[in-house]
Fold this sequence. Notes:
Elements: E1 11-17, E2 21-25, E3 28-32, E4 37-41, E5 48-51, E6 54-55, E7 73-77, H1 81-90, E8 109-112, E9 124-127, E10 130-137, H2 142-148, H3 153-160, E11 165-171, E12 173-175, E13 182-184, H4 192-205
Parallel strand pairs: 7-8
Antiparallel strand pairs: 1-4, 1-8, 2-3, 5-6, 5-12, 7-11, 9-10, 9-13, 10-11
Amino acid sequence: MLPGMSLLPRQLxxxxxxxxxxxxxxxxxxxxxxxxxxxxxxxxxxxIAVRPLGVEGDEQADLxxxxxxxxxxxxxxxxHYAFWQTVRAQxxxxxxxxxxxxxxxxxxxxxxxxxEGQAWIGDVLVFPDCTLAISEPRQPCYKFAxxxxxxxxxxxxxxxxxxxxxxxxxKPGTLAAGEAYELVPGPREVCIAELFRTKMRGRKAD
Length: 206
């Protein structure tokens, strides 16, 4: 398998949402919707509505960095979960061997079969009743570190490139865990992995 490629089937494992809630981070009370929890899983595949501004039941606290038409839905590859389980255990943030629950990376959609090196801006994910388009990579912040439980999490996402990707809603509808999806290529000019590396270099230069 080539680096950055997944051989798993393209499947939606979980749909995750959260209402914005207060988090105590570095001595401050911060409103955040990062604490996603599954509302549709493979074992309980409820149909969840997806509208132009996001998944039903989900809330974004800071619309300057999350949400809006271009970042309505956030997807994360389940293939990276083993990495985060290991580094969280090394940091003492969770017991060894404990599985991360879906939504732990703050994602709305936990899926397989599509890594950052395979995901291009403008590619379209076609589900049975909903169509989503890849728009941009996620950029980690201090809220992500708080969610993961150790301060090096932001640096590790930047170094690994395991960022996931935002999606815009091309065709509103519904999603249910367990569904397969088709990837329809867009212009294929810039992939998520390349754009993420560029954005991270830009942050270091600021």
